[in-house]
Amino acid sequence: MVHHPYLLGLEKKVKESLESRVAAFSLQDKIGRVMIPMEEVVEVRGGKKVVSNRMSYPGYVLVEMDLDENTWHTVRSTRASPASWARRRHPRR
Questions:
Q1: Other Cβ atoms closer than 10 A to 29
Q2: pTM over 0.85
Q3: DSSP per position, 25-85
Q4: For the chain, does the N or the C end have fewer beta carbons within 10 angstroms?
C-alpha cells in the first residue's frame, strides 16, 4: 500500500503512471493490480436516488506485488506530478 499526503487528488495519475511503468519494465508477473479504494454511495438529489463513487481512503493507492528491491524501486520512483510523493523508505517485511 502506498500513501502520501501529496497524493490527495492525484490518485488516478499515480495509478496510470505506475501501470505504464509496470508495462514498460515488463513487471506484470511481479506487480499485479493497482487500485484506488472506492465505494459506491447512494445519495438523494432532487428527490431521486443517485449512485456515485467516492474514495474510501483519499490519498491511498493499493498495489498488489511481490516485494523485492526492483519492484519497490519501481513503485517508489513513480511520479505523477511535480509533487514528489515517492520519497518513502523501504517498508518493513
A1: 8
A2: no
A3: TT-TTTEEEEE--EEEEEEEETTEEEEEEEESSTTEEEEEE--SHHHHHHHHT--SSSS-T
A4: C
**Residue 57, burial from CB neighbour count under 10 angstroms (0-12, 13-18, 19+):** middle
Distance CA 55, CA 8 (A): 10
Query: Residue 92 is inside which H or E element, if any?
Result: none
Q: What are phi and psi of 87, to 5 degrees?
A: -95, 55
Please write the tens of the pLDDT for every residue from 13-34. Answer: 889 999 999 999 999 999 999 9
Amino acid identity of residue 73, one-letter, is H
* Residue 3 DSSP symbol: E
Bridge-based pairing of strands 60-65 and 48-55 is unpaired
Which residues, listed in sequence order, are joined to residue 45 by a DSSP beta bridge?
A: 48
